[in-house]
Amino acid sequence: MEWGMQNRINRLFQKDGKALFLPIDHGYFQGPTHCLERPGETIKPILQYADGLMLTRGILRNCVDPAIEKPIIMRVSGAVSVVGEDLANESVVTSIQEIIRLNASAVSMSCFVGSKYENKSLTNLAKLVDECEDYGIPVMAVCAVGKELEKREARYLALAARIVAEIGARVVKTYYCKENFHKIIDGCPVPVVIAGGPKTDTQREVFDFVYDGMQQGAAGVNLGRNIWQTEYPVASIRAIQAIIHKGFTAQEAEDLYNQIIAGKA
Ligand code: R5P
């Protein structure tokens, strides 16, 4: 692997090979998402615990201090909305020049395998990979399900993850699933990170699925709402960080979470 590509990947994945990415890109299709109305304020207390920040160029430029030391994963697909016809009908909305100008360490785009726009989506991925590989910039493919949340099961996610890796994604983001999550990992030749999905009822559910996903071979998480939409975002991200980088179990993470809330850690 070329030096630039390896260097960027090493900035994202820590020495243990694991990563905690913090996505705040939700506004790109759903507007001012709850708790993300002012993204700069949302990330202030929690960014220090993340290994990378995922967002669009608009939020980067307007809400993030250029002195930031964390690597940027720039979302470059979009031009759809929750009130539009079909979330899968995305285009790439950021040029390679802009990606370089804004010093992104990686880019990400959604891929809608099995949708009406499957071919467009995957062709967009292929073009983006070609452009980014020229400059040593890794592409993280997001296995997106749009509004079809029932697609979050191993058979579909393994298929989608493998296809985007075959096209050239250097990192794949998929959802976690309770049954056979390892099949997604087993069939994917590049690191897989887990997306969080909508906020869960309890914090423990998050610790459980992050722990189980890591045990089954995930390289980390790309977790947003289950951090910054929770009552205690700092306690939440620190507990998740402990699972990812310190090998904590879900119970140990929950204990740490409670200690942080009580001001004892
Ligand atoms: C979708 O809006 C984005 O790609 C998010 O980055 C992704 O869904 C992860 O965020 P969350 O953990 O909130 O689902």
Essential attributes:
alpha/beta, single chain, TIM Barrel, 265 residues, eight-stranded parallel beta barrel, 15% strand, 12 helices, binds ribose-5-phosphate
Distance between the termini: 41 Å
Mean pLDDT: 96
Structural class of the secondary elements? Answer: alpha/beta
Q: What proportion of the residues form beta strands (DSSP E)? A: 15-25%
Helix content: 40-55%
Give the low-pLDDT segments. Answer: none
Count of structural domains: 1
Overall geometry = globular
What topology emerges from the helices and strands here?
Blueprint: H1 3-12, E1 19-23, H2 27-30, H3 39-43, E2 52-55, H4 57-63, E3 72-75, E4 77-78, E5 91-92, H5 96-101, E6 106-111, H6 118-134, E7 139-143, H7 154-167, E8 171-175, H8 181-186, E9 192-195, H9 203-215, E10 220-222, H10 225-228, H11 233-246, H12 250-261
Parallel strand pairs: 1-2, 1-10, 2-3, 3-6, 6-7, 7-8, 8-9, 9-10
Antiparallel strand pairs: 4-5
Helix pairs in contact: 9-11, 9-12, 11-12
Bound molecules: ribose-5-phosphate (R5P).
Compact summary:
The chain is of the alpha/beta class and 265 residues long. The chain has 12 helices and 10 strands. The mean pLDDT is 96.
